[in-house]
Amino acid sequence: MFVRTPRLLLRQGWIEDAPQLARTIEEAIARNTTRMPWPYPLAAAENWLSRDQHAHAPTCLVFARTAGNPRLIGGVGLHPDKHGHELGYWIARPYWGLGFATEAAGALLRAARESLRIDRIHAGHFADNPASGRVLRKLGFRPTGRTERRFSAARGHDVACLLYAEACEEPAMRCLEAA
Length: 179
Description:
About 25% of the residues lie in helices and about 35% in strands.
């Protein structure tokens, strides 16, 4: 899947991206995800980039479009689970607070709905990462009022995660209700 916005290019990661991916990930990023280990060596990047991708689970690297080569600044994906698909994303620290997470996740959500017909999407964020909650609310997600413990590979233990459901404004769209 390739998606463009005025500032970004989203595409599947290629094995050639591994060195740049490994350099981009730092502990502050990894600790706010469930699956990303810390430290994040080149071998972890290579393993992640060489995994099989599910056709209905788009996962993209996020690149800033520049006059030269695009610059890797993050990742965004939808992961299938028992409730539909869960949205996940990360942005490299130098690009925090610039709207890139909202722009990348919004673009992926639109593409997933239009081309893959994915419409049951939910999300969550660790309680100690309120900036991610602001991104989710900007994307139209609403807090469910539920919290669950989720394992963080980078932290090595369970962390409180606040759960969000997608708020629907179009009657034809199905949304995940608080599970």
